[in-house]
């Protein structure tokens, strides 16, 4: 019988520097997991990853699409609480690290551009 264990040198390598993973919900709505540079504190817990769901028309009410594509902070602060898991509050959005807000805003913009823009 042969030993099938692998030493660390033999083990296959995996890319672990992927900050965002695209998935879908049970209903087929695309989502993207974003790892935060600066975790959000909620009591004793720290939120280190936010899942952004592709916004449907209802989540975009009261916001101009061009403002979201321009990553206008006020527009993102309105929309992100409607499409994130765990749900961000508007206060959470105001307190986000700018790098994290940019990552979340980029995910929203990419969802709005559609498949043809992915290139």
What structural class do you assign from the helix and strand content? alpha+beta
Count the strands?
Answer: 4
User: Which percent range fits the helix content?
Assistant: 25-40%
Span between N and C termini? Answer: 50 Å
Total of helices: 4
Strands of the largest sheet, in order across it?
Answer: 1-2-3-4
**CA-atom Rg in angstroms:** 18 Å
Strand and helix order: EEEHHEHH
Q: How would you classify the quaternary structure?
A: single chain
**Unreliable stretches covering 5 or more consecutive residues:** 2-19
User: Average pLDDT, to the nearest integer?
Assistant: 83
Give the amount of beta strand, in percent. 15-25%
Tell the overall outline: globular
Q: How can the largest sheet be summarized?
A: 4 strands, antiparallel
Number of domains: 1
């Amino acid at each position: 019988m042969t030993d099938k264990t692998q030493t660390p040198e033999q083990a296959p390598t995996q890319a672990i520097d992927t900050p965002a993973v695209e998935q879908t919900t049970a209903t087929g709505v695309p989502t993207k997991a974003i790892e935060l540079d600066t975790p959000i504190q909620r009591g004793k817990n720290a939120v280190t990853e936010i899942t952004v769901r592709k916004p449907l028309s209802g989540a975009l009410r009261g916001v101009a699409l061009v403002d979201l594509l321009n990553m206008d902070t006020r527009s993102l602060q309105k929309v992100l609480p409607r499409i994130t898991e765990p749900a961000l509050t508007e206060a959470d959005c105001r307190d986000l690290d700018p790098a994290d807000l940019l990552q979340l805003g980029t995910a929203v913009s990419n969802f709005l551009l559609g498949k043809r823009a992915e290139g």
